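Purpose: get a first structural picture of the assembly so the mutagenesis plan has something to point at.
Setup: two entries, given in the order below. No constraints added.
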Amino acid sequence: MATRQGGLFFGRPTDRPPPAGATSVAQMIRLQNVSKTYYPRGKSAGVEALKAVDLHVPKGQIHGVIGLSGAGKSTLIRCVNLLERPTTGTVTVDGQELTGLSGDALNQARHRIGMIFQHFNLLTSRTVYANVALPLELMGLKTDEIRERVTPLLELDRLADKARHYPAQLSGGQKQRVAIARALASRPRVLLCDEATSALDPHTTGAILELLQDINQKLGLTILLITHEMEVVKTICHRVSLISGGELVEEAEVGDFFTAPRTRLGRDFLNDFLELEPPRALIERLEEAPGEHSHPVVRLAFSGDAVSTPLVSRLARECGIDVSILQAKVESIQDRTLGLMIAELMGDAEDTRRALAYLETHDLQVEVLGHVRRDA
Amino acid sequence: MSGAMLELILEATLDTLYMVAVSGLISAALGIPLGVLLYVTRPRQILEQPALNGVLGVITNIGRSVPFIILMVAIIPFTRALVGSSIGTNAAVVPLTIAAIPFVARLVEGALNEISPGLVEAAQSMGATPWQIITKVLLPEARGGIFTALTVTIVTLVSYSAMAGAVGGGGLGDLGIRYGYNRFNPTIMLITVVILVVMVQGFQSLGDYLVRKSDHK
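Result (structure tokens, whole complex):
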């Protein structure tokens, strides 16, 4: 792993020694067995916000953590820069174990970790310029050094003409751009994004995500983000973890997660995102057990080669059944294509059983949603 | 009205301004830090110190609950030790300041409480020390609120300083009581009240102006 000193990263010699025992696999963020228990006042029982979380984010990756509210996302991301100190476990960022640090050493380490927030958290008393300059002031840089760094950042973020404005005069998207410039000012190795687009409209969200992706590619910055929006994960993440009840229940490449989530919760997120539910009238008629005159209703998800295979007509031909397509959708997930379909397999019991078996031998996920009775 | 009378009024006005200015400055200089301390030592704050916070809170509350007129009399020995006399404007400054410090502190604490916790969190994520958070985040962000607090304090001091006249503190209150009330001179009474009203209006307008200028929300 290349350890940069000075140069690109503003390093006073004492800032950070080369990480001892840095592994050949450049893990930028490493959470090992991290738990966090809160003890609310007046209650003897603790609340476990995080349970034995392991998370590894390699250098240069964009890693998303998705979960419902209250799942522990917020606590998780705050444990990375120790805004929340884990109850147990270790947090290592760029080869440096943060959980062993406190006071000045921790503050020094935090200069290497940028963070942006859902509500931007810009100082209302400072102009755009002074907001971006703040982390540099905290590091003790001189005025002219600060100017040299802040000016190009404002240009990068297309904020140069807003330098003298106060945050209250900016739109949400502009505020988040200022926050991003501020987070980048100290030239961090890692950027933490706490629901960074959740307060923005879809159009602005897209623009901010594009900026984050740009930063990731141009600066090689490692990004850890938490979100409840699948759109965010789909658009910029390389890998994604699913969090529920303080535990990471699933982790996958984004393409895999969107084509084949392994957990119930993962499938729920995906279905909500794709809005692929059978028609309401059909749901009401679905029965769990197959009957004599009923047909299975299946949800098919296919990716890769399966997308371009004329599956439905083959199924009809080879198994001698009819396929009634109730809903279908094709989604592009980064470089992958995902096809989804809800269909009723119409035929006698023997043929539909064969059809299901046929589907399972192919490269696609089959989920039998239920059976719908047909008058013979 | 005689020239001597006018001179008395002018002198009393300057006395009042003197008492308000000196006690205002000292109570701001001590009350703002106390307010910051009350805030940052709270549970889950950047310098969490529940025991210290509790003690400071009780002291502040005592300071605020003793009626000014009683405080003034009760601390006479302390005042005499400090300024060498228990009468006159300098002697009045001591109880005025002591009454105003906890007043300022609680108002400043309230102003700091208005700041979004997210701003402190953001500063912490940038590696700010507690001192940097106080000087670069808390105080600048609360500037408008602190100006409001000081304006309220100054206005309160104007009226308290009138009370100080009762123990020979001098100033407009003293003049109003001695000449206006005791000697049945409604003109003097009216003049002192009008001057006090104008003074309060002036301080309030100045304060409002400073608040407006410092508020970019």
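Chain A has a mean pLDDT of 87.
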